[in-house]
């Protein structure tokens, strides 16, 4: 399989996934009994209290962590095989841009590592810069861009090799509310335009409800899935939709799920 190739069947299929970390103070149970199927083209947000395992689950999907037990397939193959096949792009909490490289050179870095020709790197970089509304900024350095623009560059880098799956770990968590709202709108538009499957970790209930086609609510450690909520919201979502009855009802259900999670053993 090559980067950007598409398979039939679910993008992610987790069955009974457990993960326990050994520590000097004894085992830490990060995930327990996680069952989840994610179809192609979904936008799925993971929300839960700090330490609930939502980032750990994302890292398992990316083969950055290995479950202790259970089954986890990404594009129909073991997660480690999907990683080697470059089946996903990963956006971290911090942009992680090299300050000595221009924005275009940062975006092109994975393409260099993958052996793309110079012409192909330039073409792909120009395309994704346009996708994230940074056309004309490729020659700038990270320190010359705002925090929101840097994070958009990080998203462009993850999109550059055209993987079908985008994993995002609280990419907007450090940004102020106004910038975050703007990037939420931009990300929804990007998802609609590209058709990518997006998995998004967040602490924000409004962000999860606004962005997602489904919301996965997780309990405190060990991380279990408390609720999976199918969004009733329309595809077109102006920010004003947050005042609608449907939006408020979904946000209430998420909040109730988070509260219920604290009653688990």
UniProtKB/TrEMBL annotation:
Keywords: ATP-binding, Nucleotide-binding, Transport. GO terms for molecular function: ATP binding; ATP hydrolysis activity. Residues 14-241 form the ABC transporter domain. Pfam families: ABC_tran. Belongs to the ABC transporter superfamily. This is ABC transporter ATP-binding protein. It comes from Paracoccus suum.
């Amino acid at each position: 399989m090559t980067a950007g190739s598409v398979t039939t069947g679910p993008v992610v299929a987790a069955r009974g996934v457990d993960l326990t970390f050994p520590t000097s103070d004894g085992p830490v149970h990060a995930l327990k009994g996680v069952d989840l199927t994610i179809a192609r083209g979904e936008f799925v947000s993971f929300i839960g209290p700090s330490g609930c395992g939502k980032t750990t689950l994302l890292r398992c999907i990316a083969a950055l962590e290995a479950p202790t037990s259970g089954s986890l397939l990404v594009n129909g193959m073991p997660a480690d095989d999907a990683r080697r096949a470059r089946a996903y792009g990963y956006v971290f909490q911090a942009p992680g841009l090299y300050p000595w490289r221009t924005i275009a050179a940062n975006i092109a870095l994975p393409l260099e590592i993958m052996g793309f020709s110079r012409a192909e790197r330039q073409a792909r970089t120009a395309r994704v810069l346009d996708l994230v509304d940074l056309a004309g900024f490729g020659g700038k350095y990270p320190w010359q861009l705002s925090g929101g623009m840097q994070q958009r560059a990080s998203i462009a880098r993850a999109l550059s090799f055209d993987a079908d799956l985008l994993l995002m770990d609280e990419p907007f968590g450090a940004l102020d509310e106004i910038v975050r709202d703007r990037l939420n709108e931009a990300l929804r538009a990007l998802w609609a335009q590209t058709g990518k499957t997006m998995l998004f970790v967040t602490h924000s209930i409004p962000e999860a409800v606004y962005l997602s086609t489904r919301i996965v609510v997780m309990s405190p450690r060990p991380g279990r899935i408390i609720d999976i909520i199918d969004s009733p919201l329309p595809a077109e979502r102006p920010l004003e939709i947050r005042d609608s009855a449907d939006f408020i009802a979904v946000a209430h259900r998420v909040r109730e799920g988070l509260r219920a999670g604290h009653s688990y053993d």
